[in-house]
Design a protein that fits this description.
- It is a single chain.
- The chain is flat.
- The chain is about 65% helix and about 5% strand.
- The protein is built from 28 helices and four strands.
- Among the domains are: about 90 residues, no CATH class; about 100 residues, no CATH class; about 90 residues, no CATH class.
- Strand 3 and strand 4 form a beta hairpin.
- Helix 4 crosses helix 5, helix 9 packs antiparallel against helix 10 and helix 16 runs antiparallel to helix 17.
- The longest helix has 21 residues.
- By secondary structure, it is mainly alpha-helical.
């Protein structure tokens, strides 16, 4: 135990002198006789703690230099405490912070040296130069089109230069820099949102970024997300215009550009006017919806038809404001346009359930690929469950069966399909599809046998047990198969190909055969074979079981 009152007698003069050369900073007495500080040696800084007892003896100490002994940094703090009245200080507490090696070197550099080094560094690290400019360059209050263009170009080039294939991490750097570099531009746009020039600059920013995006190849979606967020923010700025007359005049102007089919539109212009509606207030939405409704009336009169994707975008605007019933004829179902069709049908349901049902069935009958029918079956299922239409539910379950094989659904169809010819064709198709899928997944074999078990069709089961049916499925039904045709079950147990069975399941089947057939029958059907796999392996294991039984 060291006493800070007599350190020189406890440590060598060399250690004392070395410790005194160290810098003690941010010194604090955290609690009574508990002192903390940072101690800087020549190249590093360390966090040191000293705890004293009332006799000024060191009872606890630590230093993050990880020395096992009482180190020079602890000694330096001890000397500092002894020379400063046991640590009593009137200095204000400060936040503890270590000085890094780089900071220590910087303190010894003059401004010219620093400038010279930075300029050379920026020549090889353009993204760092861009970060420096964003942090320290004077913030502009206005931006010309050319200045905005240069900001984006410099940002992208600082990261990728002339590269065409861009890694995901480079795209992240670009987006991070772009977000920061365009902050003052966004602020300028928001402060001048009621001016047409702001909207033109919004379009310009999109154009430049999209042009860059088209000039490179990357799998990252960060640029798309950046543009999406930028659009949402700009629409929010636009909808925050306090003068309602200015907002209405501008909103009508931009939507009229869309209504004029002779004016070509960029995708970001189109996406902006849609976002204008979706992020608007209730009053703003009604204002836009009224104009869309009036335009559709004009299109109907003039027989102007839009492609389904645009109708799909306009449909929510019409539906949310109660205009769909009067404009329904402008939104007919379309061939192979599932997303649009489902939205139309969901609106039709509100006014005419039977018509919605008709639309669903019409589309189902026209689709050549069954996988596209699922959303229509689900729509019908909801309608039939609500009306307790059992025949309708049987139709739906029959249509969905191939996408979700289920014994309960099969039984429901069997019991509720009134047209027996339709059910027979359904059954034949299902069993054929399942049998053809035995090799791909065991679940198809399981449902196939479950259906036959439900029908007590053991004759059909015996016909297929030789075709890629694993033992774990056979053992579920072996007692019934044995009872149905004892001889054929034994014969078919020897004619298996590619069972893919687990040994423990094979063992259960072997035990059943040994217990239910005599030795002569088994030896006649299962001759010893020289091969050690497949049928031969099963046969040899069965014969071994017989020999084992006979020895007992």
């Amino acid at each position: 135990m060291f006493s800070i009152l007599d350190l020189e007698s406890q440590f060598s003069k060399q250690k004392i002198n070395k410790s005194k050369k160290m810098t003690v900073r941010e010194f604090e007495e955290e609690s009574k006789n508990h002192f903390v500080s940072f101690v800087d040696d020549e190249i590093e800084s360390f966090d040191v703690q000293i705890v004293l007892n009332p006799k000024s003896e060191i009872i606890k100490s630590s230093c993050d230099c990880n020395s096992n002994d009482f180190c020079l940094h602890q000694l330096a703090l001890s000397i500092f405490i002894s020379e400063n009245n046991s640590g009593k200080t009137t200095s204000k507490k400060t936040t503890k912070r270590k000085i890094s090696e780089a900071e220590m070197v910087m303190e010894d550099l003059n401004s010219e040296e620093m400038k010279s080094w930075l300029l050379e560094f920026f020549k090889k690290n353009k993204d760092a130069e861009m970060q420096f400019l964003l942090e320290f360059a004077e913030t502009k209050k206005e931006f010309s089109d050319d200045e905005i263009k240069q900001i984006i170009i410099k940002t992208t080039q600082s990261v990728v230069g002339k590269k065409k294939n861009i890694a995901a991490q480079d795209v992240k750097k670009i987006v991070d820099l772009m977000t920061k570099s365009l902050e003052p531009v966004e602020q300028f746009l928001s402060q001048n949102i009621n001016k047409e020039s702001s909207f033109e600059k919004f379009l310009l920013i999109n154009t430049i970024i999209v042009d860059f995006q088209m000039s490179v190849y990357t799998s990252s979606t960060r640029i798309d997300k950046f543009l999406e967020n930028f659009k949402i923010k700009f629409a929010s700025y636009f909808n925050s215009i306090k003068d309602i007359e200015i907002w209405e005049k501008s909103a009508e102007k931009y939507w009229n550009v869309f209504f004029n089919e002779n004016i070509p539109l960029t995708i970001y212009f189109y996406q902006f006017i849609l976002e204008m509606y979706h992020s608007g207030t209730k009053e703003q939405k009604i204002f836009i919806a009224e104009r869309v409704k009036n335009q559709i009336i004009i299109w109907i009169k003039n027989k102007v038809d839009l492609r389904s994707s645009i109708k799909e975008d306009l449909l929510p605007i019409i539906a949310e404001n109660g205009f769909f019933p009067s404009l329904q004829k402008y939104f007919p179902i379309a061939l192979y346009e599932n997303s649009y069709n489902i939205k139309v049908i969901n609106e039709v349901i509100k006014i005419d359930v039977s018509k919605a049902e008709e639309f669903c069935k019409k589309i189902i009958n026209r689709n050549t690929n069954e996988k596209y029918n699922l959303p229509y079956y689900e729509t019908l299922e909801g309608l039939y469950e609500k009306s307790n239409n059992v025949q309708g539910l049987a139709y739906v379950k029959r249509g969905k069966f191939n996408s979700n094989y289920n014994l309960d659904d099969y039984i429901f169809i069997e019991q509720n399909e009134e047209d027996r010819e339709i059910f027979k064709k359904f059954r034949t198709r299902v069993l054929s599809n399942l049998k053809g899928s035995f090799r791909s997944d065991e679940k198809y074999t399981e449902i196939y046998f479950a259906i036959l078990e439900h029908e007590k069709n053991y004759k059909k089961m015996l016909e297929v047990v030789t075709d890629y049916v694993p033992s774990n499925i056979i053992i579920k039904y072996m007692k019934n198969l044995y009872d149905f045709d004892r001889k054929k079950f034994l014969i078919n147990s020897t004619r298996r190909s590619g069972w893919g069975s687990r040994e423990e399941d094979d063992e259960i089947l072997i035990d059943f055969l040994v217990d239910n057939y005599n030795t002569d029958e088994l030896r006649q059907q299962f001759p010893r074979q020289t091969f050690g796999f497949g049928e031969a392996k099963f046969s040899n294991r069965l014969l071994a079981k017989i020999n084992e039984k006979e020895k007992k």
